[in-house]
Amino acid sequence: MAEQKSIILSGMRPTGQLHIGHLSVLENWAALQNDFTCFYMIADWHALTSDYDDTRRLADYRRTMLLDWLAAGLDPGKASLFVQSHVKAHAELTLLLGMNVPLSWLERVPTYKDQIQQFAKQGKDLNTYGFLGYPLLMAADILLYRANLVPVGEDQGAHLEFSRELVRRFHHLYQTDVFPEPLPKYAKVASLPGTDGRKMSKSYHNDISLCAGTKEIAEKVHSMITDPARIKKTDPGHPDVCIVYQYQIIYNETEEAEIREACSAGQIGCVECKKKLSAILDAKLAPIRERRENYAQEPERLEEILREGDDNANRAAEETMVLVRRAMQI
Q1: What is the pTM of this model?
Q2: Does 320 have pLDDT greater than 60?
């Protein structure tokens, strides 16, 4: 008998065009789909936790996300790509788990008060029931598929502990063993700054989109901040403070050491260094652009991919809910 594959659940909030800061995550997902049973979720209900007051473009953003995922190499023949709101069991399990989760567990989530304060500075009130409950919805997402592995960065492992505590509480209350305790699946995810050194964000206009063309890439790279102490090409550079060099480390491994040495010795100028990076990024994104354009011309195929993914997710979710309802005797 063939050994059953471990189950992976991960997702992203559809809030606009993805950028190259997301690329290493998607590349990791694409690798995982070869060896695991993967459910990749367009988390549109999670988008509502902060963007509840403007939902006009949510449908467009879902389509944009699917295109970006397919362009980056996710294969609907190997993984289930689905929309969270198309699987109503997410709401049912969230409700049922919410009946027994202590309020203090939600209030102590490290990002809760911090994010409320950050959004308040932007004039947005996130002191809502939905935002308080987002860790519960996130836990329900994972548990609904009985996922035992969740891809996370090295700094995100603590986020899973809430789900693990919830599993233990559910099993204790109902004397059952429905869910595995999900474990983190760590991956080395490249952390890219924006072109201005801040966190990469579309709202800061400091991102490079996954479908950026040759001209846009060149313009974005040209705007990158380099060593502020370096005035002339022959001045010794300090690569560690240069944003362009941080990109070279990730995307130009073959020349990175040579560029570092030449920059430090004042033998390569910032303009030449940026040209090298532009060419590397253009070559990296060219096949992604091509795949995206091809998929964009097949709207019926996109609908079919989501329909199949939604069906797979609904089947797996219902299997879990049968066990949950039985355990809770409802």
Answers
A1: 0.93
A2: yes
DSSP reduced 3-state for 37: strand
Reduce the DSSP state of residue 175 to 3 states and report it.
coil
d(CA 211, CA 23): 11
Phi, psi values for residue 19, rounded to 5° = -125, 180
Q: How far is 258 from 234, CA to CA, in rounded Å?
A: 16
Neighbours of 77 (CB within 10 A): 7
Location of structure tokens 């991956």: 187
| pLDDT surpassing 70 at residue 155 | no
Please state whether beta strands 149-152 and 79-83 pair in parallel, antiparallel, or not at all (unpaired): unpaired
Burial class from Cβ neighbours inside 10 Å (0-12, 13-18, 19+) for residue 71 reads: buried
Provide the pLDDT for residue 3. 63
Cα angle 254, 260, 261; round to 5 = 105
Average pLDDT, the chain: 92
Q: What percent of the chain has pLDDT over 70?
A: 98
Residue with tokens 């354009």: 293
Residue that has been written with the tokens 């997402």 in this structure: 141
